[in-house]
Design a protein that fits this description.
The protein is mainly alpha-helical. The protein has one domain. Helix content is 75%, strand content 0%. The protein contains 12 helices and no strands. It has helices at residues 18-32, 36-40, 44-61, 66-97, 100-104, 111-138, 147-174, 178-195, 207-213, 217-230, 234-240, 245-275. The termini are far apart.
């Protein structure tokens, strides 16, 4: 057989969507985190809670050292919504005065624009959550960490971040002005934090609010994150009332995964409709 007859397999082509997605993600990252200040300023409030307010509450309420880790994880439930909602603010800026119109004319699926933004929001939030936990550990706050526990924590934090960014995209594509968007952020990002068991168990709320809290994705997220990093299943038991912590953790993870999927699909639909106008 001659050399010319030998079939040389062609190199595998990269999936067509990966190149544009990487480019869009790189562009969004450059717009979102141009300086280290833009990465770490959003951490100031959660770090204040973890390092100052948690020890103060422990002293004032005469609780033990475990309460500090309880509040430290609770601040993750504040950091994720705030970070993702402010990422959504950048979508409005890009639509009004950025290059979104030009990008919409590119021969790529419109959903890739949103997925590029989402990947950057998840990466930056992961960095900030990691820094927050590291600072808490450096402060002397103790966590009961296992390999399985880390998987529960990471899964809950990642899926909740995806769902909250979907919420931000939906709001950003329905609200025409930045002022209106900012006015709605506290109701979406901060109010649920007070009801979801961030500073105290949901069972301490009035019975009606306890029932409401069980339907909040953040309640499931915080209970699962605490189960992951503290080995504490009381938050899960307050929601489900079962005796098997692993089963309750799986149920709460399913709730957060459903929240992430529903809001992501909804955000892609809303974005595609608003882009067609």
């Amino acid at each position: 057989m001659s050399t010319a007859e030998i079939a040389i397999p062609a190199p595998r082509a990269r999936p067509q969507a990966l190149g544009p997605l990487a480019t869009l993600a790189r562009r969004r990252f450059q717009l979102t985190a141009r300086t280290p200040r833009e990465l770490f300023v959003p951490l100031l409030t959660p770090i204040m809670f973890a390092l100052v307010i948690a020890p103060a509450l422990k002293t004032a309420l005469h609780t033990d050292a475990s309460y500090e880790s309880f509040v430290a994880i609770g601040t993750v439930g504040l950091l994720i919504p705030l970070n993702t909602m402010f990422s959504g603010l950048g979508v409005i800026v890009d639509r009004v005065s950025g290059a979104q119109r030009e990008l919409l004319t590119a021969p790529i699926p419109r959903g890739l624009l949103l997925l590029g933004n989402l990947s950057v929001a998840v990466a930056i939030t992961a960095l900030q959550v990691g820094v927050l936990i590291a600072v808490a550990v450096a402060r002397g706050i103790h966590f009961h960490v296992t390999g399985t526990g880390i998987l529960w924590f990471v899964s809950a934090a990642a899926l909740f971040t995806v769902g909250m960014y979907g919420t931000a995209e939906i709001l950003a594509n329905r609200v025409p002005r930045q002022e209106e968007y900012i006015a709605r952020v506290p109701a979406i990002a901060i109010l649920p934090w007070f009801l979801a068991g961030a500073l105290f168990p949901i069972t301490a709320l009035p019975a009606f609010l306890t029932s409401v809290a069980k339907f909040l994705p953040l309640t499931h997220g915080l209970a699962l994150m605490r189960y992951g990093l503290r080995g504490d299943g009381t938050g899960l038991h307050a929601i489900w009332g079962l005796s098997d912590p692993a089963a309750m953790a799986a149920l709460s993870l399913g709730v957060i995964a459903g929240f992430a999927l529903l809001l992501t699909l909804g955000s892609i639909r809303v974005f595609s409709r608003s882009a067609a106008r």
